[in-house]
Write a structure and sequence with these properties.
467 residues, single chain, 7% strand, mainly alpha, elongated, two-stranded antiparallel sheet
């Protein structure tokens, strides 16, 4: 049986014996056997289940199924207590603080802003003339402390980041990659910058929002006032846990994305160097200064990777944003160092000292260690930025040299052609001027007939006769 269709036919598909160079595609009315239409192409063999290739290709689906099971476990009373620590932040503080509240021994200082209200309970004086208790502080919003169950929450949000990474790569980054037509080396830089620019954009907006709501940008003294900051709001805690989860998810991504061996160690160093400061600021109750530093740092890194992506697309666009990026980079580094010195060098020195029972790690060793870490990180970023700029200057010089070497033969050929054309023009002018000169000379000079005397024929010189 045959079927008539108007299709685009590839002769290579209908007749595999034809070489690819002879492939001809055309649209026309033809009669194709049904067997030819339904001939299946070569299918890629699926990887064995639970093999490395299978896990790498389907890691997003596997992780998303695990997340769905955790969320589904919240709907059952039997498993709710087991799966709640993975989804919701834990270590909720009781809403009554101070006075005769249950957490009066753990509470040491008021929170940032107007996040608590004071109420006074009135007691009727009895026969023993009992005094009324002190005012009771009640939180207007839920507050949380740090604890071991935060690890469960971090693991869950790490899996969420893995799923989001796969979705962004498949539906956003891969689609913008095709028009760019980059080499393999630049493709790796492209995906890394896309990963970081997405994170830093979200982190910068979220961090400035949290700092604004906590009034940390308006009242700078809240960064060290009434330390230790044992309690934190929901938005502050979930923000810090999500930041730690992001850098943790990048470690298994090296396996899922089949990173090369020479790329694994530099990437691991980058991820660990971001995880350690975040965990230290979170556990030592320096989360307020950590949120502010993260806000400015994320802004500077966002502009950095935006500059890289624009350079891959078009160098002229990257050159326009370059000066602005350099200005923001310098401002962020100065702000980070100044805040570190003011908070850890001056502000915290006036607060309570070291006390593990109250959660205070305020002593000279801890403060100077954290301050030294902040300064070292800023110096490293400055060194990295300087080396990048020097490498870019070297690349420009090399390009100019290569371009000049390529242009020299072309210039020589052009000069040679100009000389040839000029010499031809001069020769044509000389040839055009020669007949006029010859005619003038001929008119001025006497003819040969007049100048030469006639030979007389004598007997001694008989005439020559032609036979």
């Amino acid at each position: 049986p045959v079927v008539t269709k108007k299709v685009v036919v590839s002769y290579l598909e209908l007749n595999p014996s034809i070489s690819p160079s002879a492939e001809l595609t055309m649209a026309r009315e033809i009669k194709i056997p049904v067997a030819a239409l339904s001939r299946p192409g070569k299918k890629k063999k699926s990887a064995p289940i639970l093999s490395h290739e299978f896990v790498q290709e389907n890691h997003a689906d596997i992780v998303s199924i695990i997340c769905m099971l955790i969320v589904f476990g919240l709907f059952l009373e039997v498993t709710r207590s087991l799966f709640t620590p993975f989804v919701a932040p834990q270590h909720l503080v009781n809403d009554t603080i101070g006075g005769n509240g249950s957490n009066s021994t753990n509470y040491t200082a008021p929170l940032a802003g107007d996040e608590f209200e004071e109420e006074e309970e009135i007691f009727v004086a009895g026969p023993n003339n009992t005094k009324a208790p002190p005012p009771v502080r009640r939180f207007k919003v839920p507050h949380y402390a740090t604890g071991p169950l935060d690890c469960c929450t971090t693991i869950f949000y790490t899996m969420i980041w893995i799923v989001l990474h796969a979705v962004c790569k498949e539906y956003l980054w891969d689609r913008f990659l095709k028009p760019l037509r980059l080499s393999k080396a630049k493709t790796g830089v492209y995906f890394q910058s896309c990963n970081f620019i997405t994170y830093y954009l979200v982190a910068a907006v979220w961090a400035f929002y949290v700092c604004g709501r906590e009034k940390l940008l308006n009242e700078v003294d809240l960064l060290w006032r009434d330390y230790p900051h044992v309690h934190m709001t929901f938005r502050m805690k979930i923000f810090l846990l999500v930041q730690i989860a992001y850098w943790l998810h990048n470690i298994p991504e090296l396996y899922f994305l089949r990173a090369k061996r020479d790329e694994i160690m530099p990437q691991l160093q980058l991820y660990i160097s971001n995880i350690i400061p975040l965990v230290a600021l979170y556990c030592l109750h320096f989360h307020r200064i950590g949120a502010v530093l993260l806000a400015f740092h994320s802004l500077g890194e966002f502009l950095k990777h935006l500059h890289v992506l624009l350079g891959l697309w078009r160098e002229s666009a990257a050159s326009k944003i370059g000066p602005f990026r350099m200005l923001i980079f310098a401002v962020v580094r100065i702000i980070s160092v100044v805040l570190g010195v003011v908070v850890f060098g001056v502000g915290l020195a006036r607060e309570k000292g070291f006390d593990l029972a109250l959660g205070s790690y305020n002593n000279l060793t801890v403060r100077m260690s954290v301050l030294a870490g902040i300064i070292v990180i800023q110096l490293y970023l400055v060194w990295e930025f300087t080396s990048e700029q020097l490498a870019a200057i070297r690349d420009r010089r090399e390009r100019k040299e290569i371009q000049s070497k390529l242009e020299r033969p072309a210039e020589r050929r052009q000069k040679k052609k100009e000389k040839e054309t000029s010499s031809e023009a001069e020769g044509a002018e000389e040839e055009a001027g020669q007949p006029e000169e010859e005619a003038a000379a001929a008119a001025a000079a006497p003819s040969k007939k007049d100048t030469q005397p006639r030979k007389r024929v004598t007997a001694e010189s008989p005439r020559k006769t032609k036979h």
